[in-house]
Amino acid sequence: MLRYHTIPVTAFQQNCSLVWCDETLDAAVIDPGGGLDLLLAEVERRGLKLTAIWLTHAHIDHAGGTGQLARERGLPIMGPHPGDQFWIDQLAQQSRMFGFPPAEDFTPTRWLADGDTVALGHTEVSVRHCPGHTPGHVVFHHAGAQRCFVGDVLFSGSIGRTDFPGGDHGTLIASIRERLWPMGDDTVFIPGHGPESSFGRERRQNPYVRGT
């Protein structure tokens, strides 16, 4: 079964998640935007074997520590979708713009597409392409655990911004309606910022997507 632990990192309090197979203790880190010492300390404390980095998208608060972590630990980088190449190319500029430490360049080991899966120990996690916040945004869904790591697509009571380059409000709403809602109302999602919620709750109460 999939297990996870979420650690807010960076001044943006970005929800970086450690996910692991509870049988093998093979682990991946989702969106290491920074705070690598905190993340690695938690890996050590739980006795996990870090095997990969998974990226939902390439904004600096989600991807800023990726290059360093991949280099230092020899980890493959899974994702995002190729639509975010532009944001990867702009990591250094993003670092300066938002006051982050300089981000190391990286090239994803494997780009991800809608319908792909990523393996973790004895379990598999499904990938859905959910553009709108960024063109190459993906989410990671584990049906058995009823959990989805949605990055900045959806929040408790809100949705992702669409005013950055490549963002599009209509595309984001369509991604939520067509990709996330079919996962089921009982699915709990871990957003890129803020508290967890469920798709059912957001369908009922979120003013941006209620009734969609």
UniProtKB/TrEMBL annotation:
It holds the Pfam family Lactamase_B. Its cofactor is Zn(2+). Transmembrane segments: none annotated. Residues 13-193 form the Metallo-beta-lactamase domain. Residues 191-212 are annotated as: Disordered. InterPro entries: MBL_Glyoxalase_II, Metallo-B-lactamas, RibonucZ/Hydroxyglut_hydro. Gene3D superfamilies: Ribonuclease Z/Hydroxyacylglutathione hydrolase-like. Keywords: Hydrolase, Metal-binding, Zinc. The keyword Zinc applies. It comes from the Bacteria. The keyword Transmembrane does not apply. PANTHER family: HYDROXYACYLGLUTATHIONE HYDROLASE GLOC. This is MBL fold metallo-hydrolase.
